[in-house]
Amino acid sequence: MALQTPPGCFFVQNRFNGHVLQIESETSNVSLRPKSDNASGDQLWYKDGNFIKSKHNNLALTMNPGMAVTGAKLYVACCQWSPYQKWITKQKCRIANHMEQCLVLQTDDSSNVRVKLEHWNDDPKQLWDFVPVGKKTTSEERISLLSTTTEI
């Protein structure tokens, strides 16, 4: 079953706090921030084959292969066809690295602005949605466009 993503650009939004993935200014780090109403390019992403790329700089969402451990941070880098830049979806809208499928994206417990890799569990901070640009979401209406265990 193919992954269903909205056409064009989208936000990657955390269900727990409603924040979205964002490229930090002048760096390659990825963090969580409140969703911008003006659809800033540093919060927009698109699917390119098996990669999730930033509209801001066309770099791919990446985990450091030498740091594939819990608590590891995410960043963006030039697409090198690395399995550490490929992402899959798991049950209940979790986004996991293709190479290290036991590690999924999760928000930080204290500040809710850090994105890190954690072991897959029942934590609601691990739930994500692809939200099309221009779509407003509320706690009652979440767009779940991630299928179960399919490669993006």
UniProtKB/TrEMBL annotation:
Residues 12-128 form the Ricin B lectin domain. InterPro entries: Ricin_B-like_lectins, Ricin_B_lectin. Transmembrane segments: none annotated. This is Ricin B lectin domain-containing protein.
